[in-house]
Design brief:
Strand order of the largest sheet: 1-2-3-4-5-6
Order of helices and strands: HEEEHEHEEH
CATH architecture: 3-Layer(aba) Sandwich
Strand content: 25-35%
Number of helices: 4
Radius of gyration: 14 Å
């Protein structure tokens, strides 16, 4: 499985929950793997097959624009260290079990209160040219 295949699986999982999905969305000099929106709420998701520590670093930039922030991982098991980090930051965690090919919410995200309104407006304007899948 490639990371692109993985993001497609995560997108399908979220679409079943009435999210609108965009892939590879630019944000502050990097690319956000999945942007899921429902109503006026924006959820930023970084998807990783292995290196969840890198995903944590990438999520910091998303704190300025997203109402909810999540990491999606495709591992056999969710590490306790990752769960602790996720809970401390208020992020969500989606786990894709490679054996049964199913996604599940391991931890639901808390609302992010660090959104910077000026950056969010710029981010929203830039979204207009990016199609939903």
């Amino acid at each position: 499985m490639t990371e692109q295949d993985f993001t497609i699986e995560i997108g399908r999982f979220l679409q079943k929950q009435n999210y609108r999905i965009r892939h590879e969305v630019p944000n502050m000099g990097q690319s956000l793997d999945i942007l899921a929106s429902r109503s006026r709420w924006v959820t930023a998701i970084e998807a990783k097959l292995e290196n969840w520590k890198r995903a944590l670093m990438q999520c910091r930039a998303h704190e300025l624009v997203a109402d909810y922030i999540c990491i999606a991982i495709a591992t056999k098991k969710v590490s306790e260290e990752l769960e602790i980090e996720i809970q401390q930051r208020g992020y969500g965690l989606i786990h894709f079990d490679r054996n049964d090919k199913k996604c599940n919410w391991t931890i639901r995200p808390r609302r992010n209160l660090k959104v910077w309104s000026a950056q969010r407006k710029l981010f929203s304007r830039n979204l207009r040219g990016i199609e939903y899948v």
